[in-house]
Write a structure and sequence with these properties.
By secondary structure, this protein is of the alpha+beta class. It is 29% helix and 36% strand. The chain has one helix and three strands. Strands 1-2-3 form a three-stranded antiparallel beta sheet, covered by helices on one side. The two termini are 23 Å apart. The mean pLDDT is 93.
């Protein structure tokens, strides 16, 4: 939750046994300069990272922009 930017956990790197066969890609979103949540995708370890990472990043940035445009 405190990490800035994209985080990628492949297989056992997540620290959760239930996700050992999967990858998790996360990006935080902010309101008022404070991280208030994390957007993520869970998928197979052989997913198309080059396509998924930019989508997660862009979506988190758009969510932050929407939250900050009040």
């Amino acid at each position: 939750m405190n990490a800035r930017g994209i985080q990628i956990f492949i297989g056992q790197e997540s620290g959760y046994e239930v996700l050992d066969d999967y990858s998790v890609i996360t990006a935080p979103y902010e309101e008022g300069g404070r991280i208030i949540g994390v957007l993520g995708v869970i998928g197979p370890t052989r997913m198309a990272y080059d396509r998924v990472i930019p989508v997660v990043d862009a979506t988190a940035k758009m969510l932050s922009a929407a939250l900050n445009s009040k």
